[in-house]
Every structure is written in C-alpha cells, then in structure tokens.
C-alpha cells in the first residue's frame, strides 16, 4: 500500500463516524448508548489492548526470544482487567492520570513517529548512546528495553489504584482481600500459564510462533474481560473457575510434560497445539460475543449496528 493510501484509509474512519452521527443524532441530543453499547465498547477495547500491544512490541523490535513481548502483553491485559474489575465493584469507570485511551495512545503514536524519523533500528541502540549520557544504570540497556522498564511503574500504579478503589468505593457491600483474590485468579492464572509456556516449551514455541501464541493469550484475556463486564451489567457474580481456561492449560501441559521429562516429547506437535489453541480461542470468543449480544438485543428490543428511527409525528 502506498503511504498516501494508508493515510486516506485512516482518515476514512473518523469521517464515517462523523457521518453516522449526522444521520443518527441530527439534533445532538439523541440517545446512542445502552448496556449493550457498554459491553460492545469494552469488548472491542479488550481485544484492542492485546492487538495494539503486539503491534507495539513489533514496532520496538523486542523479539520473541526476549520475554519483553510477553511482559508487555501481560501488563497491558492485567491493567485492563483490573480497570474493569474496579468498574465491576464501584459501577464507575474511572481513568487514572495516566491511562491507555489517552496517554497510552499518545505514547504509541510518539513511538511510531520516532521509528518513522530514525528507523526502527533506533530501538536496538544502547540507551546511553541515544541520549548522549553515561549513566551506569543504563549500561548495556537498549532503548527498547528502557521503554519496557518504563512501563512497570505505570502498570503497578494503575493496578494498585484500581484494586484499592474496589475496597474503598464498592457500590454494594464490602469487598475483602479474599474476594479480590478470587476475582483476580482467572486473569493471573491465564498469564501464569503463558509464562510457563514461555519457559517450559521444549521448542520455544512462543519464540517460533509469537503471533499465534500471543494472540491466543490476548483473546482469552479479552474473553475474561467480557465475562467480567457482563457480570457487572447483569449484577452477577464473576466466577472463579472458567472452563475456557482448560484450553491453555492443555496447551501448556502438552509442552511442560516433555520439559520435565515426564514424556519423551510433547504428545501433540507444539505448533499444531498452538494453532489449535488459536482456533479454539477465536471460536470461544465468537460464540461468547454472539450469545451475549443476542441476549441483550432480544431483551432490550434493540439492534446491534443500527438505531431505529423514532416514529414520525404528524
């Protein structure tokens, strides 16, 4: 694609958004939201959190053999999950001083422009050389690694803020540490499996097939967020055990059994298992989205992608 075509395609989306609002909100006062809209928005954002993070890791040329790619995906998805968990308990979506929808997007744009100006080779240069400094703490640290390290304090601050709000400002009753731990367990278990897959895969499958494996983990994380926001909207309990997590458990066990010598080799070829996990994750998320959206549209009597015009008055 020519660069100008890329620019034109990007411009088309805000233009379409503008035209849709002219049609469906001609007086700027029409209702254009519903519980389904909240679910739809969070569901898309949950997937976007994963795919955008993977794009950034590719932009920074982190490489799958380095744990930085999985680290970036882990902190991005956990931050999104805890933000949704805060909304689940407080019924308020509160964005911090530094957050993904604003500062996160601006940082990503800045990284992209930097790569465009200096080529992506800049991320593989020593940080001291790029900044013209000689800080001992940065000796041997590449610029892309410094970007990853900078994510950690932001992530920890965000997660702490989200979890403390669950305890301090719950909408219904008190929230104990045990309850928070139970809420966090599915997400933490998923990423514990991801890290186990990274370390215990005999064929280093996360390095040889990073897009397949990391996309699967991202989709499963988005599924958990979808379940959480659905529980919030329907005032339901968020389950501790999710049968969907049996999928990555089997994939990781397939690799880990051989790593620890319990089997001479993975029972299923690791690449085949990775593709199977990706296919199962896509089917799972698609089925979940269709099931929940159908339920909301039927109950609320609304459409998914169109707004019925109000009856004309004579």
TrEMBL record:
InterPro entries per UniProt: CDP-OH_PTrfase_TM_dom (IPR043130), CHOPT (IPR014472)
Organismal lineage: Eukaryota, Apusozoa, Apusomonadida, Apusomonadidae, Thecamonas
Stretches that traverse the bilayer: 6-25, 69-85, 105-126, 146-165, 177-199, 205-226, 238-260, 272-289
Predominant location category: membrane
The protein's name in its UniProt record: Aminoalcoholphosphotransferase
Region forming the signal peptide: none
A GO BP entry: lipid biosynthetic process
Subcellular location: Membrane
